Amino acid sequence: MSEYGYLLCVDCRIYIWLGKAIKHDDDRIAYFAVGSQEPNWRQPGLARSIWKFLAEHVGHHLESVREFSERYGQMVADDPPEGDYVEIGDLSNTGPTFDEYLSGWPGAG
C-alpha cells in the first residue's frame, strides 16, 4: 500500500506534499518520490520550495508527517478547529504553485 509524506508548519497551517514514501525492506522510509521512483531532491522546484519553507518558518512548529497519522487526520479534516491548511506545490488546489511560491525569493538561484 502506498503511503505519502508531508512537511508542515503547524503554526501557519501550511504544508508541502513530499510525495510517495519509498521504503526499505524493513518498512523504514528511504526517500520520497513524486511520479517516478526518482528521489525528490532531483526536482528543483520542490527542493527549492522546501529550503524556502524552512527559512520562512524557523522557530515554528514544523512536522514531517506520514499519511494516516493523527496530525495528518487533523490536517485533512473537513472542518479543522483552527481552519484549513494551505498546500504549496504544483498539484495544489489551495495555494501557490512552486513557481509562484519561489517568485522573487533570492534563494531560488
Description:
The chain has 109 residues and is α+β, with helices and mostly antiparallel strands. The chain is 23% helix and 27% strand. Strands 1, 2, 3, 4 and 5 form a 5-stranded mixed beta sheet that branches. Strand 1 (4-9) and strand 2 (14-23) form a beta hairpin. The longest helix is centred in the middle third of the chain and has 13 residues, at 44-56. The chain starts with a strand and ends in a 7-residue tail after the last helix.
What structural keywords apply?
globular; alpha+beta; 5-stranded mixed beta sheet; 109 residues
Which class do the helix and strand fractions yield? Answer: alpha+beta
Count of alpha/pi helices:
3
Approximate helicity band:
10-25%
Q: Cα-atom Rg, whole angstroms?
A: 14 Å
Average pLDDT, all residues: 86
Blueprint (SSEs and pairs):
Blueprint: E1 4-9, E2 14-23, E3 29-33, H1 44-56, E4 62-66, H2 70-76, E5 86-88, H3 98-102
Parallel strand pairs: 2-5
Antiparallel strand pairs: 1-2, 1-4, 2-3
Give a quick precis of the structure.
The protein has about 110 residues and is of the alpha+beta class. Helices cover about 25% and strands about 25% of the residues. The chain is built from three helices and five strands.
